[in-house]
Amino acid sequence: MFNLESDYHNTNFWKQIGLACSTYATNPKKRLKALINAEKQLIQKDDFAAPLYQAEVPYLLKSKVDGFQLSPYGNVAYYWNVKIK
Description:
- By secondary structure, the protein is α+β, with helices and mostly antiparallel strands.
- It has one domain (11-50, 59-84).
- Helix content is 34%, strand content 9%.
- Helix 1 (11-21) packs antiparallel against helix 2 (28-45).
- The longest helix is centred in the middle third of the chain and has 18 residues, at 28-45.
- The mean pLDDT is 83.
């Protein structure tokens, strides 16, 4: 996880991170909820570490745009499949 080298092991935390990076990667509301759950596990329950930063990048798309994709990490846009309807 982003160059984190530690002996931290918590199945619930890693499950939430996994959901955010795969299953919910294209659903911003569920992805954010999974990340919040992971953060609560890390900070409130395990008292392990404090996150420093999470970026947001807003995108405005017209309804005519098709095929626009975001990376599961949310900060890289893929344009190679974009078509105008």
